[in-house]
Amino acid sequence: MSPLSSPDAPVDEAEATEEETVETDERRESLLAEVTEALGADHVVASHIAPGQDLWIRVATPAWADLARILRDLGFSYFTFLSAIDWMPSPFGRGMDAEVDKVLEGALPKEPGEIEHGVTGGTGRFEVFARVYSIDRTIGLTLKTDVPEDTMTVETWTGTYAGADWHEREAWEMFGITFEGHPRLRHIYLPSDFEGNPLRKDFPLLARHVKPWPGIVDVEPMPGEDDEAAADGGEGE
Questions:
Q1: pTM for the complete prediction?
Q2: Which residue windows does the record flag with biased composition (Acidic residues) (predicted)?
């Protein structure tokens, strides 16, 4: 038995203390407590703190608009962004990242795999998430809520954060999520008669299969690589 593993070997107290220490983040723990108290514990479904990095809070869908108002009252006046997530694995494969995931010509979509949610979990396929920041507190946080698949509707944040207007329009257009109370949901990128929602995982991006993604086939060599390849080839002859 080595001295390091011997039960009689001296223990480095500083090392032992470091191993036993659980990393905490009092600022974000306090912020989570504030939001939970203001919104109501029943409406805070899940949370996650990455010490020194971020705080995620997932709330019940009916409390989504109330959450925005509470955050504004708590000093989070800077709206960063709002978007949506489709957690369903693509039935078409990634199609542009790796050869093994490409869909063969003529192949049918496969059955989607099991849904795996992020750190705060989820109850279904779609979630809306947003990020806000407090300049006075110099801290931000990420908020999430589930989108009911039977209605595909959540309440708008535009009454509290005017900047959410375009973000919600984009999520409506690309994911098919309706933001109840939004004053003017209309297309930003797509023609008004366009059918489907291109950022849903089950929307087939046929252009990716008709013409290969340029990032895969059009790779230019770095300066000097041609000369090195020629030199290697010459040595092998």
A1: 0.73
A2: 10-23, 223-237
